[in-house]
Amino acid sequence: MAKSLEFGAFMEKFTLQPSPSLQQLPLSGLTFAVKDIFDIEGYVTGFGNPDWARTHSAATTTAPAVMDLLKGGATCLGKTVMDEMAYCMYGVNKHYGTPTNPCAPDRVPGGSSSGSAVAVGAMLVDFSLGTDTGASVRVPASYCGILGFRPSLGAISTVGVVPMSQSFDTVGWFARDPVILNRVGRVLLHLPDVDPIKPNQIIIAEDCFHLSSVPSDRTAQILVKSIRKLFGGQCVKHVILGDYVKDKVPSLQHFMDKENEDQEDNIPSLAALSSAMRLLQRYEFKNNHAEWVTKVNPDFGPGISERIWDAIKVTGENVDVCHSVRTELCAALTDLLGDHGILALPTTPGEPPKVQANPSTLDLFFSKPFSLLSIAGVSGFCQVSIPLGMYHNVPVAISLAAKHGSDAFLLNLVETLYDTLKEQIELLTE
């Protein structure tokens, strides 16, 4: 198949057949693709950069997450393009090209799991594997108009996955269909089938939706109408999340920026949260990769190069405070949501940037979404990005987050909600 027909999604095509079985397996007949950050026996894990591929040998084992999918009956069709060293959210790669966003070809697909999202969005596979450290599943899912799931931290093995930042690294996945999203999740998370549980509260993060350039009647209100129809209106609640986090996470004071406190397009406590996350991420990235980067001096694309060398220079100052922030935020959000509560917020606050945007402009553009995306990242909670159709010719999405370990509950809820959300979108756009 010509590369144009494959939307530039694949690094390498090959077929790995599922493990033979006499019984009907949960993923039988389904195909998937794998981000080029996962080890597959006999193939070099490229990590988005040709110098990395050149200086590393072929993997001698296959990552357990990939093995689980093959044992579950799915067929792997190859490895997908990713941003260099997973250190970007745009989906741009100067060496291997930018996979084409199937929903909006003039927009970036989002990264760093760009090719995996595009392969699903373009219907080249039924589902795909990515990783989500800062938001590398949630952002491309949002930009490509598909479902993307970031599991609870530590819920899925990251053995055989090149590390980026272990405090935040998760194995995530994409699908177009909520039933497949759920089925894949059960295999990866080793979960039995359980009946859906009705949420006891859906908390709308009002201030987060105010950050969004998309009107709330195309996001939050669609969710609220769907919840009322399915579960009744009594479980819908509202919170000013920034105020709650500021009050309940005292260690964030170390990262509060006085200049940001009065900006309308900013939630100061969440901006501080993203600063803490970025510091710890840089520090761990340095510990993982500084030796290789300084020895090889790889050829990096614009924007990525500056980001990686900044990380290499970071010191351990305030890293202990970052860990305090993680502990406090997890406790605060667990109290807020309880066992069967859901937090609703925009996946990203704006539309995907244009493909040819300047890297420095993109960095500025991504400062606001990172505030929203760091909530699940720092807390270790699970989060799903759900597409809500198109608005002004670009995809729109909403995110639902649940407390750590509530992955089965959240996956079931998405499956229950999905058709009603689609009905509400159709009513609005008729």
UniProtKB/TrEMBL annotation:
Q: Which organism is it from?
A: Theobroma cacao
Q: Which GO terms describe its molecular function?
A: hydrolase activity, acting on carbon-nitrogen (but not peptide) bonds, in linear amides
One protein family per Pfam: Amidase
Extract the InterPro entries matched here. Amidase_CS (IPR020556), Amidase_dom (IPR023631), AS_sf (IPR036928)
| Residues of the Amidase domain | 23-177
Family as reported in the entry's similarity comment? Belongs to the amidase family.
Can you name this protein? Amidase 1 isoform X1
